[in-house]
Description:
The complex is a heterotrimer of chains A (529), B (321) and C (297). Chain B has 321 residues and is mainly α. Chain B contains 14 helices and no strands. In chain B, 78% of the residues lie in helices and 0% in strands. Chain C has helices spanning 19-31, 33-50, 52-55, 85-120, 122-136, 140-151, 155-182, 185-193, 197-233, 244-253, 261-289. Chain C is elongated.
Amino acid sequence: MPILRTTVSLLAAATLAVTVAACAPSKKQSNSNASGNDATLTIASTTDVVNLNPLLGNSRTDDWVTDLMYPRLLTINADGSKQPYLAKEWGYTNGGMTGYFVLRSDFKWSDGTPVTAKDVAYTLNTIKTQNPKGGVVNGFMTNMVKATAVSDTRVEISMKRPDSILVPEVGFWTVIVPAEQFGQHNPVDQFTNSSNWLSAGPYKLTSIVKGQSYTLTRVTPYPMAPGGTPTVSKVVYKIYPDVNTEILALEKGDVDVIANALPPAQVAVLQKQSGITLEKVPGLGFTHMTYNMKRKPLDNVLVRQALAHAVDYNAIRNVAVQGQAISANSSPITPSLAKYADPSWKEYTYDPTLSKQLLQQAGVHNLKLNMIYSMQDPVIAAWATIVKDDAAKAGITINLQGMDRNTYLAKTTSGDYDIYAGSFAIMDEPVSNMALQYLPDGAINYSQVNDPKLTSLIEQAQGTTDQSKIKSLVQQAATYVRDNVIDNIMYVQNLYVAHSSKWTNFTIKPSELLSIVDPQSLANVKKSG
Amino acid sequence: MPPLAAFILKRLGRAVLTMWFAITVTFLLLRLLPGDPAVAVASTNMDAGMRHQLLKEYGLTQPLFTQYVKYLDQLLHGNLGQSFTQSQPVSSVLMARLPWTLLLTGSALVLTVLVGVPLGVIAATHAGAAMDRLVQTAGVVGQSLFVPSVGIFLLFFLGLRLKLLPIGGAYDENAYGAGWYLSVLQHLALPCLSLVLVSLGSYVLTMRATLIDSLGEEYCLLARSKGVSERTVVWRHALRNALLPTTTLLGLQLGFLVGGAVLTETIFAYPGVGRAIYEAVTQLDYPVLQGSFVLLAGTVVLANMLTDLAYGLLDARVRTA
Amino acid sequence: MTATAEITSVTAEPTADDPSAAAQTWDEFRRNPLGLIPLAVLAALALIAVFAPLLAHYPGGYGSAVLQPPSAAHWFGTDNLGRDIFAEVVYGTRVSMLVAVCSSALAIALGVLLGVLGAYFRRIDNVIGTVVDLCLSLPVLPLTILVAALAGPSLRTIILIIAFFSWPEVARVVRSQALAVVNLPYVDAARVIGGRHSWILRRHLLPAVAPVIVVSIVLTASRAVLSEAGLAFLGLGDPNSWSWGRVLYEAQQSGAMSSAWWTTLFPSLAILLLVVAATLIAIAYNDARNPRTRQRV
């Protein structure tokens, strides 16, 4: 019967498709290590892994996964201070012309070979000479000449001139890779690192299902876990492109942790839920707007001041960020940096009338500007409309241009914008940060500023190691930045992450990069019940 | 030339033309619309010389026509190119996602047919009555639903509140052996249901309309006057002819579903090709985009060929035309 | 995929010279509650769109009552920035209907033009027919996403994109209807007599194709609403104007969909209402003019 035939052939075709799909990677029995509990920790993220080569820059989830395999020289505490990790000592010798790291000897790659100074030297030199695509570390290496493995546990960096920021910043931001494995690929950009992973612990990738999950199993020895053994046998990163589905999954118990920062509006909601614990991740960075000083009339300080007074900072903090942010007092040295912050700094007032006056003084009428921001940042996207509406009250028209990340990055680097809105996750070393932000050729000079006075202040701070002098100089520089609206620092956001209450003993580190999914944290978590 | 061979040859020619068209349109759109492919390949704060070198390697510095010819040549050798952002061949990027898309759309289509045919028959045989109106309205409502809202709703009630089904993903990483297949089915249920709800509507409506027409045709009147039971008239005679345009609709829907399930895959965290395309768009990963359109065009062509074949099986008139 | 496909099964009638056919169709249509009610709903939505400022203040800025459930003060609740969702949905009616009308108008214009020309001038019919088929086989949603992402989010882009992907369907349907008419004896007769092409097209073809156009407009417009919502949901919509898709997008971005049901429900219902009403009208209209599905039979 023809109908039957059609139905059968349709069903056959469909069944074929189904069977083909079902023959996807078959499961193997999970083999857990001898001791320790067999628990699996499932972590949800909204962004998929793009590439697993840690020397290349890319998505958040890339970093979370690779951080579990490749060690940093230094880690950072919630108060912003650098702490030992792979390196147990670090500093300068030779009149500040040589930087050094002294390494621990108990980190091992998962093939049994020790992590040595050779790996560190290889990593640093490769970043310096090849400047891998998207990496940020190269920006700190202006004054570095070369890294040398003086012994198995000592790395020395020869420098062009004394630079107080090189060692601590390179130490924290670099992730050390195995020289043997990565060294076989030249240029290193081409190395996809998609199999045969070597990990220095606490976990190592064992399987990948693109777009869905990344499974890591524990690796021993890992010096930072009790008895050298990470407490969890398996860590699985699961990808949920939609944050709503992600939250539902946590509420149900399909996942144990949400690694990405929660949307501010959901913090209060989830706090009320039993079975879910929220952790506050202190903000060490800031969110800001910069005005492109290479474009008229933004080169006029009066205009920039007018713009600064046309923003209702309180409303933004209370509504868009739901009160989960503190004022930065309009200074690039935020209150989080207790050592350097000056309590006399005050935030720009929200005063549209003043803005109008300033604009008149500057002789500017009908000011029209465009503002770029990344659509991947929902909090900024949310307050962008508030900024636009506030500016309208001062007679300023702002055209919002939210864009995809790559275009946003491109426009940012080429300086193709009037107003830039964005945020930095960790801005804990004022000298280093200011050098990158306010020196004319700084890698993140989004204000497009070239001010001799500011440059001089920063360069002086770079060239000395006297802490009290540094403090005085950076405070002067910050005051200058604030008064001249070279940068409009709006707030420091405290992020919240959520996890199932069944899991405890997370270590909280600053910024979304580390938060509670930092390797030391995940190697020590415990499941109760 | 024997009619069957001519039929097949004509279909093949059309298939090739369709694929060429899809590839060219995509290629042109990517190159002519604003949006700089170079930003995905090489960071703009890279040394200018190095950047130019990288762009050259990816062939982005050559004139448009040269790039086009090279790309076609590459395609003919079965090479879909290298992803800009993932440093992997496009084919491996897409092939990793394809099985899930096939599973999702395949099962959705099967269910659509299994449920849609009886519903269409009910509506057509009760044309104008309350039952018909009900099915019609349900069908219209179905195809007017906004998928993400439906998805979240299903996840919230069936996943979270009733804890019947898992929330997101294609399977449970901890399952193995027979349990793995079960977990695949469990994870498939909700996204499949969403797709079925939306595609069922148009399928039922088309089936109903064509059945009504067929039932009014002379051959049905003849059959009835010969004393054939109404049921046989419907199921054996009218339905067979009604299946013709509905099969074409299925073919169209397959092509639509493979690429169009983006919203479903996003909400349900289902790792299919649709979502991969969306991510490639936001990352400006041109080779993956181009490759995926080749894939989609290929699927549509294949679906059309299959439906034409089914058509040919069903309707002898087509073969001899 | 909508019910446009079913239109092809309806035979053509030379309604051009038959003035009472229109009256008959309307008579039949009136009898069908599934036609009248949706028509009333559509009219209501159009009124809401036109008189939006009388119904609510333009949603803007921010409020302190963030993500509040529906209450006396806020009938549809508030969104993640404390804005009134009722206002957003009301003003969204304007934008969504504007997008629907404009994109379908463009699609219809192009589709009718090419469909009729192709049917009438057999020489170019092959070319047009092939182009239409090729365009129909393009993967619509991925291409829509691609173009929207590259061209940048704006209402104008969205309208153009949706129109660009809707016209082949219209052309196909119009062409097959026109083809049926073109072959009728009186059209041939008109040509033989030496009637000018434009006269024949205007007097005979267009009226014959008119019913199909009516249905196409309605269906294309309703599909446009869903397309716009889908694009906005993916972040490719216009962030400067309020459309139903944007309300859903804001709900999605702020995680409100997982906890604040009102942020999702009301815009989704609005979309559902418009699309269902439009589609039911199209079906009822189709049934009304097709003798086979008329009640009397």
